[in-house]
Each structure stands twice: as structure tokens, then as C-alpha cells.
Amino acid sequence: MTTTNNPTIGTLATTIQQIALSKLVPSKANVRKVNSTAGIGELADSIEAHGLIQNLTVRKAAKGQKFEVVAGARRLAALRLLAKEGRFDKDIDIPCNVLAAERDAEISLAENTQREAMHVVDEVLAYQRLVEEGLPADAIASRFGQSVVTVRQRLKLAALSPQILEAMRADEITIEQARALAITDDHAAQEAAWFGRDGWSRSPGNLRAALTSEHIRSTDRLARFIGIEAYEASGGAVLRDLFFDNDATFLTDRPLAMKLATEILQAAGDAIRLEGWKWMEISIEADSVHHAGYDRIHPQRRDHTEAEHVELAGLGESYDALVEQIEAYAEGDPQIEVDEVRLAEIEQRIEAIRNAAERFFPDEQALAGCLVAIGYDGALQVTRGLVRTEDRAALDRFRHGDHAHDDGDETPALPSPLESEPSGYSATLIEELTAIRTAALRVELAQRPEIAMAAMLHPLVLACFYDRRHGLHMHSAVEIRGERKALDLSIRQPEACRALSGWTEIVEAWAYRLPGDLADLWQWLIDQPIETLTDLLAVVSAANLNAVTARHEISRGRIVQANQIAQAVNLDMRSWWSPEREFLSRLSKSTIAGILREAGCSEDAAKAIERSPKAEAVAQAERELDGKGWLPSPLTMPVADRVGELDDRDDDAGDGHATQMAAE
User: What is the Cβ-side half-sphere exposure of residue 493, based on CA atoms within 13 angstroms?
Assistant: First the structure.
């Protein structure tokens, strides 16, 4: 132990001595109790790299040769950690300020209360200077006991615009707001995003949204479809938010992403065109696949040949064996080697054999086409067998024979497209809203078996008892084909849709009740009581219900009958939908202002919407409409319609009663 001097500061006399680490113990008088051990590892790394910058303050213990550390308990803990890990010798000399007085609590309190943290701007700029002096980020992290990610985050903040940093220094910008602005390296964009707005629009979320509005999030279906690696390999720039782990990567070159996606779709479409379709179209957006806007042809299934049965059996055994290997590998068996390539080949071959058992009639296929698009999950979506309006008459003649109307009757006129909705709602938005309404209607119908039974009987009775000249057999909301129209393709954010979630819960609950093996279904059905069958009928009726108004909608009668069902179950969409930001952001400001007036909001509020920037207008409108119960027209309950009146207008048919059946 050595003594260097004996200064007097204020009224406290101290002596600086070198004391062996093994003789230092914590003092019970240390006032820091909370977070006293936080960050010890990082502090130890810093002491190892830079030495002990501030001496410990100690006093002689009452007994023995020990010294109690009055101020510097965390530094002592870090020094002990270094000794424990073998990085310091346990008897290394530590410089200490030895107190002559016994006012330990006062000294401890003074050290902890008079300390002032470095301003965050000074801190991040200090990190930047270290980099400029040639110290890499990983070396900085090691020397200061920080993670490399933390160092890179601080360097990212140091790269903010000088004007933004000055505003931070003046405490006008919070650290969270600064992190949001740092999502881009463009100083002009940072300054425009901050100085060009005020109030609530400066929230971190709004700032981040403003700076990434033109980019493509990595979770977007377009990004998943083309793949980030392929995008970057083609020279596309990627923006990564260092401060957020989830959904924090953006593709900044939208034209390039669109070009890559188009090329992939076109290549897939060219191969599909060779199957013999009349037409093939590609589309970036999956919601361009408007099933309700087309007639459909369906493939015919044949039984598998004996050779196919044998091959499928062998493939099934190989598949099961590989799956067992994968499960063993997952459980940590190091002797297992998984041939994932072979597994993929088996899956493709099984799918090919199953597809070979289905084929379209060539004459029908020559009148139909297919749409190649990007599905909501980012996968290639191919919809085959779609028939356009102009080809439906020819398809109808083929299906019923060229002489089906030799009695002089003309083929019934096709229903005309639905009239367009009021301006302000795009066709895509109308389809989404009516898909949400359909999901809600399915939930309500599934809980009303008596109405579901009537809805299921409706198309069956039309087909059995009404003449085709009335055109009514095409006009039912329940499409009896044993199908379940996918609604999530028409809804931009299906996971956030309350109605769709409610419908999914009903379907999944019944899926658990039904037998797992298809061969057992018939026996299960006939073993059930009538009450169970009635409830199940309601669910499958609801599953077949289609009340979606698609862009190329032609079936007026189906929509009208869907409205009748909605009236019967007293559908109230206010229980399933409210005008939130995602909906309002897709409308023009003038349309939003009109909605406020329609909802009974003040004229001042509507005019403020028209004057405000779009983001502010959307947020303000969401607040104004909260609790008003306003619904857009595609979600409202229409005035009761009569199918007969509509078909008189569309098909020039009779009054639609069963008494006018044709006696053929």
C-alpha cells in the first residue's frame, strides 16, 4: 500500500492510497440500493479497456486490515468480476481516496446525487469520433462493454442531420422521435419530416410512417414474392431500421420490385398459357382475382390408374420415412441426415399425380382463361377456369347443346354489371367492405339454423321448379357447389378483421368435431341427432354464402338475395366494423370531409379536414367518427329488394312465380 498525498477538500480530509483489491469490501452505508448491480459486466469491460477512471472512496474498517468502500460499490463489483474471471489479479493495487472522517452516508449520497449523465447527443457524437479515429464498432463495443448492435444504433443517431441533432440538444426531440427520424440517412427527408409538421404528427409512429410511405415493407406480399435476396442482387436498395426488430426492413426501389414481380408472373403465365387457355392475364395485386365477376368451369376428376395407385403408395411410404428422420433430427439426434431435397421432390410428384387425375374439357377450356397473381401470403396464385362475360353465351350453348333452344327461345340475356357506387369508394375498397360484411353475415347466419335452411333451399328450389327463362337459378347468395369462397383474398388486413376472425373460429370449432378421415364422414352424419345436423347445415350454408361485390360484378340477383338474408338475421355491421385509419387513408380528403358531414359532425371539423395534410386529416377524422356509428354504403342495410322486380329489369322475364313452370 502506498500513500501519495493528503489533500483537504471542503471539510473532508482524504488520503490517496493504493490498496490491494482483496482488502476492499462494500460498505453498508452505501445509499445506492436500486440498480446497484445493473451493467456490472459492461463496467468491467470498460475498466479493463480504460483503467479505473475514478478512484474508489474508502474508510478504514473497524476491525482487521480491510477497507470499506463508501462510494464506488459498482466499480468494486466490476473489479471483483475481473479478478474472478482471471482478467485481474486479486491482489492488484487499486487507487482509493481514504476518508479521515466517518460521514460515509453523506459521501455516498453526494457522489450519487451530484452525478449528471452525459447528454445523449454528446454521447453519440463521441462514439462517432471514435469511429473517425479508426476504431471499428466491434472494438468500441468490447472496450465499453456494449453490444455491437447498441454501438451501431448510437452511430446511426450520430448520422442524423446537424439541425436535428441541435434540436435534440435543446431537448425539442425525444430519443424515440430521433430513432424514428434515423430510419433514413437522407438529411433533407429527416428535416422535412420534423420541421414540416407539429403536434401529434411528430409522434415516432407518424414520423416513421412519413419516411417509409413510399417503400415496401419486407412483410408485404410483393417483397415476399420476389425475395429480398433477389431484389438486392438486382441492385435494389434496402432500408433497415436498427431500432426495431419486427417488420423493420424496407425495399426502397418500388419500380424495380414491380419489374421483378412482373417478370416472374409473366414467366409463370407463359408456361400456363401452353395448357390451352383462351387467355391469360397477370396482376401484381391478388385482389384483381375477382371470382364473382366470372363464370367458372371446373375440372373433371377420374379415378387413379393401378400404376398411379402403386406409385402413390410407394411415395407415401418414402415421405413418411423422411418425416420420421426430420422429427428425429429435430429431437437432436446427430446421426440423422435429412434429405430435404428428396422430400420436396416427393411432394411435387404426389401433387403431379393428383393433378393428372383432373382435366378440363378442351372445348370449355378454349372459352376460359386464367389469372396469375400474387397471393396475400406472397405466393404465386393461379386461378384457372374463369369465363369472361363475352364468352358466357358460347359456354352456355356448349353445355346445353347447340339445339337446346330450337323452340325459338333465345338464350337468356346476361345480367348487366352492377351500377357503380358513389365516387370516393374504389372498386377494390367496395370489394373489401362487402367481403367484411360477408364474413359478418356468415357468423350471423351460422347462428340462425332456421334462416340458413331457407337460404340453402332457395337455390335448390329455383333450380328444380323454375324455368331457365326466368334466369333465377343463377341468382342465389348461397352457391351450392360445396365450396367456401375465400374472403381473405379481398381483405387487405385479414388478420385484423373482426368479422373474418369470428367466422374462422366457427369453422375451426366444427373442424375439430368432424371425423378426421373422409371415409368416416357419411356414417358420422347419419349417426348425429337432428339438432346437430341442423346446426351443421347452418354453418355450411354460411360457408357457401357469397355477398361480395367484385369489380366485374354481374350477378345482381345474388347480391339482392344476400341483402334479404341480412335483413332476416338483423345484421348490424356496427358490431363488426368501425371507420379506422386504415380505411380512411384510402379515401380522398374531400370524401373524408363528406363522411364527417354525413355522420353529423360539425362543418368546422369537415372544413378542417379539407385544409389539413392527409395524415392529419385521417387521424382527426378517426377521432371525430369515434362512437358515431357511421357506416359506408356497402355496409349499410339496404331497403328490402324483390328478386322478381330485379330480374324483370335484367332478364325481361315473367313474374318469377312457381306457377309459371315450364312443362318440358
Answer: 8
Instruction: In whole angstroms, give the CA distance from residue 94 to residue 258.
Output: 64
Write the single-letter amino acid at 23. Answer: K
Q: Which of 555, 389, 570 lies closest to 478, judged by CA?
A: 555
Kindly report whether the global pTM for this prediction surpasses the value 0.90. Answer: no
The Cα–Cα gap between 146 and 46 comes to 9
Phi/psi class of residue 381: alpha, beta or left (left: φ > 0; alpha: ψ in -120 to 50)? beta
Cell 344476400, residue located: 562
Pairing of strands 56-60, 93-99: parallel
CA distance 261 to 267: 10
Question: What is the secondary structure of 591-625 as a DSSP string?
Answer: HHHHHHHHTT--HHHHHHHHHS-HHHHHHHHHHHH
391 or 5, which is more confident: 391
Nearest by Cα to 13 from 71, 70, 98: 98
In the structure, what pLDDT confidence band is assigned to residue 533 with cuts at 50, 70 and 90?
Answer: confident
Between 470 and 91, name the one with better pLDDT: 91
Element (H, E) at 9: strand 8-9
Query: What pLDDT shows up at residue 638?
Result: 63
Sign, CA dihedral 546-548-553-558, equals: positive
Query: In the chain, where are the structural domains located?
Result: 2-113, 120-249, 258-400, 427-577+631-660
Provide the residue type at 542 as one letter. Answer: A
278 within 8 A of 316, measured Cβ to Cβ: no
CA pair distance 325, 336, nearest whole angstrom: 7
Triad 247, 248, 254: Cα angle to 5°: 90
Q: What 8-state DSSP symbol labels residue 268?
A: H
More confident residue, 76 or 215: 76
Q: What is the DSSP string of 86-150?
A: TSS-TT-EEEEEEESS--HHHHHHHHHHS--PPPHHHHHHHHHHHHHTT--HHHHHHHHT--HHH
One-letter amino acid identity for 342? Answer: R
Q: What is the DSSP letter of 203?
A: S
How far CA 652 is from CA of 332, 400, 471, 600, in Å, comes to: 72, 21, 10, 42
Is domain 2-113 classified as CATH 3.90.1530.10? yes
Helix (H) or strand (E) holding 560: helix 556-568
User: What are phi and psi for residue 413, nearest 5 degrees?
Assistant: -65, 140
Pick the CATH number of 120-249 from 1.10.3470, 3.30.70, 3.30.540, 1.10.10: 1.10.10
Q: Which residues pair with 59 in a beta bridge?
A: 68
Most confident of 458-467, 471-480, 638-647: 458-467
Whole-angstrom distance, CA of residue 561 vs CA of residue 533: 24
Burial class (CB in 10 A: 0-12, 13-18, 19+), 26: middle
Q: Given this model, what pLDDT does residue 649 score?
A: 39
Q: Which residues contact 396 (CB under 8 A, 6 or more apart)?
A: 411
Is the dihedral angle over the CA atoms 452, 454, 460, 462 positive or is it negative? negative
The overall average pLDDT reported for the chain is 76
| Contact between residue 68 and residue 174 where contact means Cβ atoms under 8 Å apart | no
